[in-house]
Amino acid sequence: MARLSNFYLFFYNSVQALGWAIALFRIVIDFVSTKSVNNAYASAGDLICLLQTIGFIEVLHGAVGIVPSGFLFPLMQWGGRTHFLLAIVSQLSEVQESPAVFITFVCWCCIEIIRYPFYALSCLGNCPSFLTYLRYTIFIVLYPIGALGEMWVMYQSLPVIMEKNLYANYFSALPFTYHTFVKGVLICYPILWLQLYLYLFKQRRSKLRTRNNEKRKKRN
User: How many of the other CB atoms lie within 10 Å of CB of 59?
Assistant: First the structure.
């Protein structure tokens, strides 16, 4: 069962790594050809929406114990990204050409083309040390930039959401509108994001300490 689980995880993470690499390639090719940062969603939005939706499987992985990460923090990350992407960006053409979408997508892609190969090769027990280091280091810069990009887009979307009365049918039975909900999300976003950010630092200390201890044992 362990070998079957590893094979499945290797396959899943390899597919995700390939998908995010293709998304980044599309964004870069469009940027090089047009010299514009306004077409990130047009060039890779559909693919990123698909990859992000499929990513819910990772929450299930943690919930059933296939991976040791648990489900809470993967659910927080998946929920935040998915709301931003599927509920706002994909529904509002007015914000799809925002430079903040370009910034956010590039950050997401750069993170994922490191994270998923790390997971895939770890399933084989043969992950290079440099990839482990990148996995638990590059987020220090990219996560804050990506989070600021997400907040920027959500802030830009507020007037459009109010004008269109977006999701009015879904919120009709609630004492607040979707516009108010998004404003609440913007207020809570830094707090929730900081919890995830600090959790990643905790992971970093644990993983890199383990790697360094293994190196010392090999030397001795």
Answer: 20
What's the CA gap between 199 and 205, in Å, rounded?
10
Which two tokens mark 210?
A: 């383990």
Domain ranges of the chain: 2-116+123-219
Over residues 155-165, the pLDDT tens digits come to: 999 999 999 99
Distance CA 74, CA 196 (A): 9
- Please, how many CA atoms are within 13 Å of residue 2, restricted to the half-sphere of its CB? 3
> What is the pTM for the complete model shown?
0.92
Is 37 within 8 Å of 96 (Cβ atoms)? no
pLDDT digits (tens, 9 = 90+) for 48-87: 999 999 999 999 999 998 988 888 888 988 999 999 999 9
Contact 168, 140 (CB under 8 A): no
